[in-house]
Amino acid sequence: MTAVPDTEVWVAANGLELPGSLAIPPRAAGVVVFAHGSGSSRHSPRNRYVASELQARGLGTLLMDLLTPDEEAVDLRTAELRFDIPLLADRVVGAIDWLAAREETAGRALGCFGASTGAAAALIAAAERPELVRAVVSRGGRPDLAMESLAAVRAPTLLIVGGQDEPVIWMNRRAQDELRCETELAIVPGATHLFEEPGTLEEVARLAGEWFVRHLGAPA
Prior knowledge:
The structure is a single chain. By secondary structure, the protein is α/β, with parallel strands linked by helices. The protein has 6 helices and 8 strands, in the order E-E-E-H-E-H-H-E-H-E-E-H-E-H. It has an 8-stranded mixed β-sheet with strand order 1-2-4-3-5-6-7-8, with helices on both faces. A hairpin with a 2-residue loop joins strand 1 and strand 2. Helix 1 crosses helix 6 and helix 3 packs across helix 4. The longest helix is centred in the middle third of the chain and has 17 residues. It is globular.
């Protein structure tokens, strides 16, 4: 199965409309919402690569901007909003509700893929929508920034960290101790925080794809 074309959409989230890219392969069993990391956007090449690999496995994907254009302009100057985890989590919750209500995606199992600070937002969203979110994957994430919500997460959670990203490994181990759901920590040898080394992002995509297919389902 190959990647499918993106459809540009406006995601209604808490009174805002945020731009996004939605791709739904034929007979997709599940859809994964991407929460990008600090200073990034729906155009993140790393997330778009992982999304294409998930699509190839028959999973739908939604990549979206978590900030409005005006907020992005402020954040470029101050870098303050990219670390506003409650704000970002509210936007991810809004996207989950939007997918659950949309005719094309209603009834499909939902997952969250979070990178860097976006992982904290994804985990908070999973805690707030346990009846909808069926799986979470964190790539080089900061789940420690969602510490107060971790015990409420019910979705099986995979934490992927680079083997050379030692401070983040420690943060993920600490967060894993707080999770009460099914959880695994996968350390990719030789990888640094952005998984820029040859073959490391491919390993992230493989691990994430297997996790989501296991918990969201394969194509019907």
